[in-house]
Amino acid sequence: MRKYNFAIIGATGVVGRAFIKVLEERNLPIDNIYFMSSARSAGQKIEFKNKEYTVEELNENSFDKDIDVALFSAGGDISLKYAPIAASKGVIVIDNSSAFRMDPEVPLVVPEVNSEDILLNKGIIANPNCSTIQAVVALKPLHDKYSIKRIVYSTYQAVSGAGMAGLKDLEEGLKGNPPKKFPHQIANNCIPHIDVFLDNGYTKEEMKMIKETRKILHAPSMAITATTVRVPVFESHSESINVEFEKDFNLAEVRMLLTDSPGIIVMDDPKNNVYPLAIYAAGKDDTFVGRIRRDESVKSGLNLWVVADNVRKGAATNAVQIAEKLIEYWNKEGN
Ligand code: A2P
Q1: Whether 130 is catalytic
Q2: Contact assessment for residue 232 and residue 188, using Cβ atoms and an 8 Å cutoff
Q3: Distance between CA atoms of 73 and 316, rounded to whole angstroms?
Q4: CA of 271 relative to ligand 1 center, distance in Å
């Protein structure tokens, strides 16, 4: 089988490091790999598959090399500047930032949900927001069957979603030191504020969940609202998802659909204290679903508790799964 050349942009960050781990674990057919960061970390050594590599400083000539796929996670500004440069040189960019997600020319992909959208790419494929990914993995099989009318998202998001600086704020906060990344102390606290506030009173994170869910599910007018909250947890986002369907559903069938869907593990035995937990999802690639119950306040409503590792399925694993699909398509085309 043909092997491919990869680059990781932001290789020294939280998601960048997870890219490396997941690429190794899933054993992608990689020939050469390049690791890039800012000048701050250039020169650092990274081990990949028992070989040592030196981190290079990202610059405008970084993509003059023979690179097939570049995984970006160095922030929106870096993606805005360098992803088009990479794409113009024939590299397929899988971008973890929000820079291109809502661009109609850029597919926004969760492989379990809309992998065929990958084929529409013009050089850039966007990886959705972490909280959106786990939500749509859980909702897709139910939407296909019962057609979603309205969603209410409430999230409980880990500090790793804010990168190294987020992790440090919780670590230091637990020792009584003041925050540097978040607007308030995160230790022993819940902050209903992720990303910036917009004119409509929502945060950008909330609007990302709303708009990205619509784009991924190909449902541009789906009614969705969201409240996103940062909680003092290092790894894994938890979400309460309340969903109303157009059609009636049967709870046993809902469980069966979720159990049979790729990427989902149902953990739902509340009498024995079994439900998805952040500490359980951490380090795993699946989306865990539990607390499955009817919302008795509306005609066809359902409540779910959905947990996933935000750095893995919410970022690195999803991006690597996109790369795997891409390679699968290339192999089919005989590239
Ligand atoms: P660096 O280690 O040189 O700062 P996180 O959000 O987890 O902190 O990670 C951010 C990642 O993006 C890091 O790898 C960081 O590299 C990288 N990065 C930040 N600014 C730039 C830049 N101007 N050019 C290239 N990479 C950058």
Answers
A1: yes
A2: yes
A3: 9
A4: 45
237 is catalytic: yes
Q: Which residues contact 9 (CB under 8 A, 6 or more apart)?
A: 16, 36, 37, 58, 70, 71, 72, 73, 74, 78, 82
Q: Which atom of ligand 1 is nearest to the CA of 10?
A: 14
Number of domains, the chain? 2
Distance 155 CA to ligand 1 centre (A): 26
Which amino acid, residue 6? F
Q: What is the value of pTM for the model shown? A: 0.97
Spell out the SS3 assignment of 48-101. ECCEEEECEECCCCHHHCCCCEEEECCCHHHHHHHHHHHHHCCCEEEECCCCCC
> Is 110 found in the same domain as 139?
no
Please tell me whether residues 101 and 187 are part of one structural domain.
Answer: no
Ligand 1 mean position, distance from CA 81 (Å):
14
Tell me the residue range of the domain where 152 lies.
Answer: 131-310
Residues paired with 10 in a beta bridge: none
pLDDT tens profile 142-190: 999 999 999 999 999 999 999 999 999 999 999 999 999 999 999 999 9
